[in-house]
Amino acid sequence: MSYSFLDFLGLLGAVGLFLYGMKVMSEGLQKAAGDRLRNILSAMTRNRFTGTLTGFLITALIQSSSASTVMVVSFVNAGLMSLAQSMAVIMGANVGTTFTAWVIALFGFKVNISAFVLPLIGLSIPLLFTKKSRNKSIGEFLIGFAFLFMGLDMISRYVPDLQSNPEMFAFLQRYASMGYLSVLTFVAVGIILTMVIQSSAATFAITLIMCSKGWITFDLACALVLGSNIGTTITPLLASMSGNVAAKRTAMGHLLFNFLGTLWVLCFYYPFCHLNEWLTEALGQGDPTALAGYVNHIEATQPDVYDHLFDNSLPDGHDVAVKVAALQQSVSIGLSIFHTVFNLINLSVMIWFTNLYVKIVERLVPAKHKEDEEFQLKFISGGLLNAAELNIAQAEKEIAVYAERVQRMIGMAQRLVHAKEESEEFANQLSRLEKYEDISDRMEIEIAHYLNRCSEGRLSNEGKLQIAAMLRIVSEIESIADCCLGAGKILIRKQQSHVSFNDEIYANIDAMFGYVESAMTNMVSLLGNIEHAREQDIIVSYNKEREINNFRNQLRTANIENINSKHYEYQAGIYYMDLVSDLEKTGDYIINVVDAVREQVKVTGTK
Q: CA-CA distance, 448 to 435, in Å (whole number)?
């Protein structure tokens, strides 16, 4: 059988269909259960064991350890979790990826793919046209599931039959009969193959088919699977390129975990393979090493049967076909056991050395400057968008950080009020206020840009409403920063007019600042736990807004009386009321944020 360039393109297309199926299935699941997945993320920050469980569950659900690890890298980049917490999640993700291997092993050969793929798509299509968003998402999930196995079926059709291509077979034969060196060679092949196709699951599928058809022996198939565990780290490494030093350390930690795991297995490679062979037989699945020898024996003794073995032209119930099918199942289960045992032992040993991992990674990826150690918002996880629904939780955390930074400006404005005119202290405080306002403008643009990118992804209706609410919140927070700088501009005009305030004015302004600061603190608290905001805390914010308005009205009435009574000059009263109005306007923007939080709570259904 000749293998043409068109056949190679067919193989690429089959792998593409397989990966696209995983993508559609993952996105459909995220849209159907996005809020639940976001709630799972809170478990990451508890301890190493809940973090490991979270990594396992997310990877099992979205069917990609690369996707879940990229998300972890983005969360660390955004300051949502520490490096130590991320390592536990990554360890869990490595175990979670074995779930995909078991799905492929259990269904890829036992079920006639062509018999259920098209009917499944046919049943899913009506769900796409229903009005309910959840039903549409379930339909997408089922179609992605069908595409995944359709791609698997097509991969088996387009992978070249190495035994029918003497030149290619001779090339592999040279490297397949060198003992332990062959193992190292196929580990390298597994690394490169996974780096190219960006999916350890796809590499596992190809390996499974090659081994089940007798093209390579079981121990070399295990070496390919071992290499794929290192190759899959390329995706998070690429994603971390645009992140901060914490993100780069997280991606390096993922590589280190898989590399050290592969290293110890290679030290005990053949005994470890024998252990998995024994486990496969103990489970009643037969000897996974027997397939290659049996197929080679058929080729040598019954070449006519061999020619028809893999084109499905043998009659039903043929002894050879039945025997090969049983051995194929044995190999598929054997590889899944190898993959699972490897990751479970890795996890059970290395989870106790999480802190040591952190120290090693910090040495491997040192911070160039001390400030690199601190989280700094530049572009929120630039280039790390992966799962639009899950990124909403990241954006919420960034907005809380934004609000905390803007809150500092209220204190700066109050200190500016009391700074001596034309003094160095006044100039420094004003410069700092202007710098923070400039940072606020850039943060608003960056967060809004990130939210817009999220909205371009595949989102549920609830997710779209949440992003709209968050865009409004970001705009209102920026307006609070503008008001703080506005207070500074009023004080500059007062200074230029050589106007002075008396103690009564200063006392009233400080009281007004106190009301605004209290309202701002309550708003920041709401943003810090936006999905679990309580109605009583929202009511407190409305009460504080009424206090600000009532106090503004009292001061406005008293100001007229004080000017008439000559307590202070008319021009001082003007600047005094300008400051009071500016602070009252700040309170209006704060309550606008609270309104948006209240709407978002209604959207997510949180009590």
A: 20
Query: What residue type is assigned to position 255 of the chain?
Result: L
Model confidence at 57: pLDDT above 90: no
CA distance 194 to 177: 23
d(C-alpha 206, C-alpha 224), whole Å: 10
Quote the CA–CA distance of 287 and 321 in Å, as a whole number.
17
How many residues are listed for the chain in this entry? 607
DSSP string, 264-306: HHHHTHHHHHHHHHHHHHHTT---TTHHHHHHHHHHHH-HHHH
Task: Report whether pLDDT(26) > 90.
Answer: no
For residue 271, count CB atoms less than 10 angstroms from its CB and return exposed for 0-12, middle for 13-18, buried for 19 or more.
exposed
Distance CA 306, CA 531 (A): 62
Question: Over 80: is that where the pLDDT of 46 sits?
Answer: no
| Maximum CA extent, the chain | 118
Assess contact for 224 and 159: CB atoms under 8 A.
Answer: no
Residue 476 is predicted with a pLDDT of 94
Alpha-helical regions (H) of 497-569: 503-528, 535-564
For the purposes of burial, counting CB atoms within 10 Å of the CB of 30, is it exposed (0-12), middle (13-18) or buried (19 or more)?
A: buried
The 3 state secondary structure assigned to 85-136 is HHHHHHHHHHHHHHHHHHHHHHHHCCCCHHHHHHHHHHHHHHHHCCCCHHHH
Q: Which residues of 199-228 are buried (b: 16+ CB within 10 A; e: fewer)?
A: bbbbbbbbbbbbbbbbbbbbbbbbbbbbbb
Q: pLDDT tens for residues 447-500?
A: 888 888 777 766 777 778 888 888 999 999 999 999 999 999 999 998 888 888
